[in-house]
# Entry
Amino acid sequence: MKTRLTFFLVLSLAVAGAAIAACGGDEELTFEQYFEGLQSIVDDGALDPRLDTSEANDVADVHELFVELTGIFRDGLRQLDNLRPPGEIQDEHNVFVHAGFAVFDEANGMIKKIKESDSFEEALGVLTGTPDYDNAQAEFSAACAALEAAALERDIQVDLDCA
# Structure
């Protein structure tokens, strides 16, 4: 039994070590590595998931779609937060992460409003008539543009889809 426990402990530590190594651990990435990682997150659609309500028929459908979209965005923010940028752009990275979580917080508030909607039209209206969400999204886009500019200053080509 002790051998089996030791084996599982060693295996668990090996898996955890591999995961930390794959994420870069606490070690700073180079500019190229950082922007490559950021571009990968963007290319996966995790920071800009698209909401297609064309097949939604009722409040429950809109709610389910928005919950799914928000989960994708949250996962993208977690990936972003795990990147270890070079010190010279740590502030820009932090602003981007913070702005992203502000968007996430506003989206969570919208989920509640959608669920409480009395009609399909009201649920769709929540998606377009939320100034706090729009402001948070504008700050997120501005922070994204600052990171794009930082990449271009270093002759690194990225397309972070900051619109």
About this structure: The radius of gyration is 20 Å. DSSP finds six helices and no strands in the chain.
